[in-house]
Amino acid sequence: MNRAMLATIHSGALLGIDAHAVQVEVNSGEHGDPKVFIVGLPDSAVKESVDRVRSALSNTGFKAPETRTTINLAPGDIRKEGPMYDLPIALGMLVATRQMGDEKLAGVLDQYLIAGELSLSGGVRPVRGGLALAMLARQTGKRGVILPRESADEAALVEDVEVIPVRSLDEAVRMLEGELALQALDPKKSPFCQPPDEAHAIDFSEVKGQHTVRRAVEIAVAGGHNLLLVGPPGSGKSMIAKRIPTIMPEPTLDEFLEILAVQSAAGVSLKDENRCFARPFRSPHHTISDVGLIGGGTNPGPGEISLAHHGVLFLDELPEFKRSTLEVLRQPLEDGDVTISRSAGKVTLPAAMMLVAAMNPCQQALSGWN
């Protein structure tokens, strides 16, 4: 007869751009049908983790639980989203079924927050919110975080937190059991600390002529003013707007962490073009919805104005945007943040950006230019 055993792994849930502590409790060896049940407000992606974890365990040389197993994601009043709980669930199953662990392991697991998506082969895939998890670890007094390599790069920027990158479930198990050393990333080697690639870099100095416009842009940037560019097609409005971030002061580390936290929560920090120490430039299409611009969703997440935090939000062809879309910009422009209320909760997202808009003149004025 199997005796039930409880294992607890520490992880987090992403709400807005902040992470909240979540305990992944795995209880195996219960009486009943040999099934796995997940409770604690999981969404569909979390429920599907059972199949991914089973395949990952099998292809890594471990066995999935053969008894009734209950997985509780506590606290139960916070919605859990995404595949980030795959790795902690798998580790919890291994501890609960006594396939890994000794007296020291419980102490090691208690010191780290763990997150990661598993492939069917046992590999670990990146997840959103790596930076937020590292900041949560620092706030709660944890030693560090264990994350997929791609997500660990951004988390390494948080001071006083060990960031352990893993590439597979097997590597994570061997590290926790002491077969492999827990090697933390060096923050100085993070790709996010590097300047943009010179081959793809743009600069305001490339703007030739247009002395009046250049002077107006420089004054607007120096004073933190918003800007409207009006001119005929082909006069260089978009070209100039794209280069405005290059004459803005380099962000401080605190500002860059705020920028990266928003991008990490939205999942865009994993893209190569966003992996540099620079201010963001966002240029949404004029067909964007109100939610796409200010943020929202079932679990509120950042929109374009938050992704432009400490950078530039460029609205090209301004008259083509819907009036309701432009109206929602009023409060964020004044306050520097946006508060979104949904049934899942209320979050406040940063939105301190420089608004730059461009438009063509009316046909009568355009004919005068021609």
Automatic annotation (TrEMBL):
SUPFAM superfamilies: P-loop containing nucleoside triphosphate hydrolases, Ribosomal protein S5 domain 2-like. InterPro entries: CHLI-like, MCM_dom, Mg_chelat-rel, Mg_chelatse_chII-like_cat_dom, P-loop_NTPase, Ribosomal_Su5_D2-typ_SF, Ribsml_uS5_D2-typ_fold_subgr. Residues 203-364 form the Magnesium chelatase ChlI-like catalytic domain. The keyword ATP-binding applies. The keyword Nucleotide-binding applies. Keywords: ATP-binding, Nucleotide-binding. GO terms for molecular function: ATP binding; DNA binding. This is Magnesium chelatase ChlI-like catalytic domain-containing protein. It comes from Cerasicoccus arenae.
